[in-house]
Amino acid sequence: MPGLFDPLRLGALTVPNRIFMAPLTRARGTRDHVPTEIMPTYYAQRASAGLLISEAIGISRQGLGWPFATGLWTRPQVEGWRRVTDAVHAAGGRIVAQLWHMGRLVHPSFLGGEAPVSASSTVAPRYAHTYDGKAPYAASRPLALDEIPGVVADYARAARHAMEAGFDGVQLHAANGYLIDQFLRDGTNQRDDAYGGSIENRVRLLREVTAALIDAVGADRTGVRLSPNVSSQGVADSDALALFTAAVKALDALGIAHLELREPPTTGTFGAGDGPRLAPQLRPLFRGPVVLNSDITPAQARDDVAAGVGDAVSFGRPFISNPDLVRRIAEGIPLAPSTQATWYAQGPEGYIDYPTAAP
Predict the structure, then answer these.
(1) For position 268, what pLDDT does the model report?
(2) Are 177 and 187 within 8 A, CB to CB?
(3) Would you say 288 and 256 are in contact if contact means Cβ atoms under 8 Å apart?
(4) Can you give the three-state secondary structure of 81-119, one letter per residue?
(5) What is the DSSP letter of 128?
(6) The one catalytic residue among 43, 155, 178, 195
(7) Quick check: is 127 catalytic?
(8) Over 70: is that where the pLDDT of 270 sits?
(9) In angstroms, rounded to a whole number, what is the distance separating the alpha carbons of residues 161 and 30?
(10) 258 burial level (CB within 10 Å; 0-12, 13-18, 19+)
């Protein structure tokens, strides 16, 4: 019976425990989306995690619309991330880069006034974060067929840059209502070409981008994140189980190193799921390691791994204020709370100043 503190093989990586750090946007980059000098410290402090999954990293100017988030399309960005990965490796850790295209959730202010791209022309609900504060989202324009290969190439370029920056692998962000999710779900994909309509067509971009990442860095260093049980940021589907059954089967056929499933409970504090998690039904369809995520307690994590629902669990917010989360779970030390006001601040406060537990 596997436990949280047993090693696990993830393709080319063998990790020492099954407590992973989930991707967390923390807005500590520059306006040019370059990692800052405090970021190596932050990630190295948390290197005892079995695997660090980086904050979502923009693959291109077109795909990034979060203030002070980081990218992987310019040389200074690559060099900035190299300082982070060097610090993580010096601390004994392992880190993969989560690759991000936000699609319709990029506000035009990030694009020189141009419309964001998506599967179809739709408008996200609520407000975008911009450098000038919150602003209503704008209508997206559908990606033309002849533009899609360029987006796929942007993902592959970012993956190669990630390896140049010293990452141990990459993870495709295909969850949470961003570009790949916008293509997957029929609520935002209204196309009538090879990328829309049937489930097979809507899974096409996910499959093509994943294959491009595999070509760039190898299947044994490629993972994917999905969010099957939640309609995120206005992106919903009429038959999530059928859709994600097809998506997981497609990813299994590609032989990727891991699959992460973000599935918040129906009463989650920060974004509730639309229904029970689908991991128990999807797990048998994927032969590689499955990582569970979202509002999972340490006790539930132990039970899920022992029962085989997942092979590892990624924790997000607990890692913000508990850089030594692995030790705290192992020894039953109470978890410290975080200060929400500093989650997306630009300085060291609430970022690298959370202490570890006393010996």
Answers:
(1) 55
(2) no
(3) yes
(4) HHHHHHHHHHCCCCEEEEEECCHHHCCHHHCCCCCCEEC
(5) E
(6) 178
(7) no
(8) no
(9) 18
(10) buried
In total, the chain counts a number of residues equal to 359
Q: Which pLDDT tens digit goes with each residue over 203-252?
A: 999 999 999 999 999 999 999 999 998 888 999 999 999 999 999 999 99
Beta strands in 188-293 (DSSP E): 222-226, 258-262, 290-293
Q: Which residue has the tokens 């209503």?
A: 136
Note if the pTM is more than 0.85.
yes
Pairing of strands 8-10, 13-15: antiparallel
Torsion of CA 271, 273, 274, 278, to 10 degrees: 160
* CA angle, residues 173, 21, 289, in degrees to nearest 5: 65
- What's the CA gap between 182 and 186, in Å, rounded? 8
Judged by DSSP in three states, 284 sits in: helix
Contact between 20 and 257 under an 8 Å Cβ cutoff? The reply is: no
Each residue's pLDDT tens digit, 280-329:
999 999 999 999 999 999 999 999 999 999 999 999 999 999 999 999 99
Q: Under 8 Å CB-to-CB from 354, ≥6 apart: which residues?
A: 320, 321, 322, 323, 336, 338
The confidence band for 87, taking pLDDT boundaries of 50, 70 and 90, is: very high
CB 154 within 8 A of CB 59: yes
C-alpha to C-alpha distances, 334 to 168, 317, 343, nearest whole angstrom: 31, 14, 21
Residue-level pLDDT at 271: 57
Written as six digits, the tokens of 53 are 């999954």
List residues bridging with 172 in a β-sheet: 99, 224
